Amino acid sequence: MGWGIIEAEGHSLRHIANGVIKSTQSKDLAQRLVELHDGLQQILIDFEPQEAAVEITLANKNPSSTLKLGMARGIALVTPALAGLPVGEYLPMIVKKAVVGNGHATKDQVGMMVGRLLPGCEIASADAADALAVAICHAHNVATRRKWSGGGGDPLVAGDAAVTAGRVSDVIGRAR
Q1: How many Å apart are CA 52 and CA 6, to the nearest integer?
Q2: Backbone angle region of 132, left / alpha / beta, with phi > 0 → left and psi within -120 to 50 → alpha
Q3: 80 and 87 Cβ atoms separated by less than 8 Å
Q4: Residue 151 pLDDT more than 90?
Q5: 8 A C-beta contact, residue 117 and residue 13
Q6: How far is residue 84's CA from residue 119's CA, in Å, rounded to a whole number?
Q7: CA 159 – CA 9 distance, rounded (Å)
Q8: In which order are the strands placed within the sheet that holds 161-164?
Q9: Domain residues of the chain, as ranges?
Q10: What is the spatial distance between Cα 1 and Cα 159, in angstroms, rounded to a whole number?
Q11: What average pLDDT does this structure show over 19-44?
């Protein structure tokens, strides 16, 4: 499960951290889900974000993998919600459009644009790059929503952060 933390202030984005939460393949599904929960919970404790966002997963070819992916995605949604954070959800096409300007962008294009939008950021993996892309998309959406709702001032004040637990598809149930 890739994750990323950014800070948004006005129109400026700043990379805070990113990485991957891995589960132990030899463990049963329930224990792997616990590992994902515990890893994500530790990130929430360490970085204290104010918002969270998760990528909406589209159907897989393998029904068993789709079901397991849905369970992992449930962990990604419920863990920040239990911590009291609002959780946004975004389709991959919306994330790509927000970051690259093209809803059908490739994984490489997303990674390259994340690097440009967050200069100096060392990205842990493609999954972490996707998670940072979800965070960027979320920051833009929150800023727009606040602006349109008449919130005034800077759409995101200093210290607002978004953690994303995107790209859970590589965590559980995928043959390696």
Answers
A1: 11
A2: alpha
A3: yes
A4: no
A5: yes
A6: 30
A7: 8
A8: 12-20, 2-9, 161-164, 51-55, 87-90
A9: 2-170
A10: 24
A11: 97
Angstrom CA distances, 65 to 54, 62, 70, 86, stand at: 18, 5, 8, 27
SS (H, E, C) the chain: CEEEEEEEECCEEEEEEEEECCCCCCCCHHHHHHHHHHHHHHHHHHHCCCEEEEECCCCCCCHHHHHHHHHHHHHHHHHHHHCCCCEEEECHHHHHHHHCCCCCCCHHHHHHHHHHHCCCCCCCCHHHHHHHHHHHHHHHHHHHHHHHCCCCCCCCCCCCEEEECCCHHHCCCCCC
The whole-angstrom separation of Cα 149 and Cα 7 is 21
Q: Give residue-wise pLDDT tens across range 46-105.
A: 999 999 999 998 877 888 888 998 999 999 999 999 999 999 999 999 999 999 999 999
So what's the pLDDT on residue 97? 96
Task: Give the separation between CA 20 and CA 125, rounded to whole angstroms.
Answer: 7
Cα Rg of the chain, angstroms: 16
Q: What is the pLDDT of residue 146?
A: 77
pTM of the model: 0.84
If pLDDT is split at 50, 70 and 90, which confidence band does 152 have? Answer: low
- Written as six digits, the tokens of 81 are 């919600």
Q: Is the pLDDT of residue 173 over 60?
A: no
Report whether CATH 2.40.10.410 matches the domain 2-170: no
